[in-house]
């Protein structure tokens, strides 16, 4: 199953977020997942929505601070939900970050995925304008 997210993991993360919300605590989640358990079907996929809903209450209603640390790999439902809904994203060098794997994308879209396009560094440079990248790199 390789670190995939099932309904128990989703419930525990949701409980953690609710606890942090009730006690007005900052939240740091370290993500390392290959996605959702396909064996659990919709039960596993619903964890994305459940966690995102808890984070909405945490961030929007209570205005609390959330940081996610993405390790390699962070893919699938984790990327689609709590991996990217944060105030600050921190990644380990060369972390593999993607919603879908290279093979799945290539088979679905019938296109070649460029080598290295699903690494933290590539996403950092693609998503941030040059001025913001310079500021972020100086902070390191």
TrEMBL record:
Q: Cite the GO molecular-function annotations of the record.
A: acetyl-CoA carboxylase activity; ATP binding; transferase activity; zinc ion binding
Q: Which gene encodes it?
A: accD_1
Q: Biological process GO annotation list?
A: fatty acid biosynthetic process; malonyl-CoA biosynthetic process
Q: Which InterPro entries match?
A: AcCoA_carboxyl_beta, Acetyl_CoA_COase_Trfase_b_su, ClpP/crotonase-like_dom_sf, COA_CT_N
Q: Which GO terms describe its cellular component?
A: acetyl-CoA carboxylase complex; chloroplast
**Assembly description:** Acetyl-CoA carboxylase is a heterohexamer composed of biotin carboxyl carrier protein, biotin carboxylase and 2 subunits each of ACCase subunit alpha and ACCase plastid-coded subunit beta (accD).
Q: Where is the CoA carboxyltransferase N-terminal domain?
A: 1-140
Protein name (Swiss-Prot/TrEMBL): Acetyl-coenzyme a carboxylase carboxyl transferase subunit beta
Which keywords does this chain's UniProt record carry?
A: ATP-binding, Metal-binding, Nucleotide-binding, Transferase, Zinc, Zinc-finger
Q: Name one Pfam family in it.
A: Carboxyl_trans
């Amino acid at each position: 199953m390789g670190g995939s997210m099932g309904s128990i993991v989703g419930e525990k993360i949701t409980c953690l977020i609710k606890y942090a919300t009730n006690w007005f605590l900052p939240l740091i989640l370290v993500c390392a997942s290959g996605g959702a358990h396909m064996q659990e079907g919709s039960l596993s996929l619903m964890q994305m929505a459940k966690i995102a809903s808890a984070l909405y209450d945490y961030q929007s209603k209570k205005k609390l601070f959330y940081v996610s640390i993405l390790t390699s790999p962070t893919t699938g439902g984790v990327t689609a939900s709590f991996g990217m809904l944060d105030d600050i994203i921190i990644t380990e060098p060369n972390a593999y970050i993607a919603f879908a794997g290279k093979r799945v994308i290539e088979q679905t879209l019938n296109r070649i995925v460029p080598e290295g396009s699903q690494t933290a560094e590539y996403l950092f440079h693609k998503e941030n304008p040059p001025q913001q990248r310079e500021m972020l790199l100086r902070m390191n």
